[in-house]
Amino acid sequence: MAPATVCAKASVVCLDFITQRKEVLYSLLSVTMYSCADLLIYYLKDRFHMFVIFTWISAGIFTASAIDGVVRRSPLPLGDRRKVIGLLAINSLLSSASELVTTLANVLATPGDSVAIINTAPTVVFVLSVLLLGDPFTLAGISFSVMSVIGVALVTQPPILVGTLVGDISNEYITGVSLAGGSAIIEAVLVIMYRFIGNYDIPPVYVTLFNGLICLPLGLTLCNVFDVWSTPHSIGEVFALSSTGVAWYLGVTSVYLAVKEKQRPVCVITLMTSEVVIVMIGQYLLFSVENTWIRYIGALLIMVACIGIEVSGNGVDDPADENEEAHPIIEKTS
Question: Within 10 Å of residue 218's Cβ, how many Cβ atoms?
Answer without folding.
Answer: 17
